[in-house]
Specification:
Chain lengths: 96, 184
Amino acid sequence: MKVPYVDDKPTRGGFRTPSDDDLGRMIRNTVESWRPQRGPDWPGVLIRLASSGPPPWLLYTAASAALVVILLAAFLVGSALQIGALGPQPVPSNLH
Amino acid sequence: MTEEGKELDPATEFRQLYDQQYVSVYRSIRGVVLESSAAEDLTQETFVRAYRARHRYTPTAPPGAWLRRIGINLAISYLRRQKLARVLPARLYTPPDRRDYDRAEARDVVTKALATLSPKLRAAIVLHYYDGLTRDEIAAVLGVPAGTVASRIAKAVAIMRKSLGSDQDFGPERSTSEGALRGR
């Protein structure tokens, strides 16, 4: 549904719709009536912190670094042992 | 902002910030997810993430707005995962326990009207009407342009007014005795 830009001017309520002031008041009252059942639980935060693993950015950085090391090592080993495509290629004898 | 007193530094006064902001962050998150137990869990997760990032906090916005940004993003991600989980085979998807919602909150017309909005519209409405943030502050929290915030609020207000209007009357024509007469 496309709705045009509306400024902050309060709208007077009609017969069946609340005004902007009424709506704001109703939302505020409803949201303020919401109370958490358990309430603040700082030890719970500490337990979550202790049980959680490393942050994702650290995990991805470590995994990327490990991949680079593996590829580099494979290249060095392959070229030292002349394995596969890193070994000397046979030269076709019919080419001059 | 609804926070009271001075602004606390997340790097050095995180525990006090937790006690000060817990309920208002919970309410902002609940305004998006509309489930009390999920909102409590996401509130705890918000503070866990904020604690890990506390040294990266820059005082360009109040700590309350910073916490709301983390919390609202977590809430929207949670709802996105829930929506995705619904398309998974039934064995993998465990629907959330909505008994308390169905009992108490569905009776509440405002919650019912909020439930007709998309999570992004609900976030804009709660941040505007409950947290009292300006459009620029909401834009910073949600990571969208201020113009987008304005159109989201306008759209949400239009939908909610329509939804609330179909549930009850608000007109000036209503007399004070009308409620009493209706109650008989």
